[in-house]
Design a protein that fits this description.
H-NOX domain; four-stranded antiparallel beta sheet; 8 helices; 16% strand; Heme_NO-bd
């Protein structure tokens, strides 16, 4: 998992819960990196899981809800760092449906060894989108949060239903209805 995911996560934890919480979740975890991350480094997903689990335990917030909040934070990083990428889209359905064929292609240019989930578009109209998310990492709520922020970015709203195809969350169906 790319280091930017870790550095931004710890920045969010510091902003929302304080530096003491950052120290607490790092020291409670068994991290090969010892909690020292660079944005361009690559780290084990198990480290992110440990950080999320300890943050959840210390805050009483579910991991899924933490991932939603983190996705909202991460979208603001995308807005600041890649405004030209976002400007190529005029509609949230168009942007979300292009994750696999455009956005992930651009991500791989920056991070060639990034392990990204796949998003298979099953059905698309002007106001609806059905996609299948597949990943060895059950971070579908991170994807859901990014989708929510995409609609907000375009001053639009949607109902996004999430259905686990595999109980462990490694395969999920998203059904999006633009309001």
């Amino acid at each position: 998992m790319k280091g930017i995911v870790f550095t931004e996560f710890l920045e969010l934890v510091e902003d929302k819960f304080g530096l003491e919480m950052v120290d607490k979740i790092i020291s409670s975890s068994t991290l090969e990196s010892e909690g020292i991350y660079t944005a361009v480094g690559t780290y084990s997903f198990s480290e992110m899981l440990q950080l999320l689990e300890h943050l959840s335990k210390n805050t009483g917030i579910s991991i899924d809800n933490l991932l939603l909040v983190y996705a909202e934070h991460f979208f603001s990083v995308i807005e600041k760092s890649y405004p030209d990428l976002l400007a190529t889209y005029k509609d949230p359905i168009e942007m979300i449906s292009s994750i696999e064929n455009h956005i992930h292609v651009e991500v791989r240019k920056i991070y060639p060894d990034a392990e990204l989930p796949t998003f298979e578009v099953i059905e698309k109209t002007n106001d609806t989108l059905t996609m299948i998310y597949k990943s060895s990492r059950a971070m579908h709520h991170f994807g859901l949060g990014l989708m929510n922020k995409t609609f907000e970015h375009f001053n639009s709203t949607a109902t996004i239903d999430l259905e686990k195809i595999k109980e462990d969350g490694t395969e999920v169906r998203f059904v999006i209805h633009k309001n």
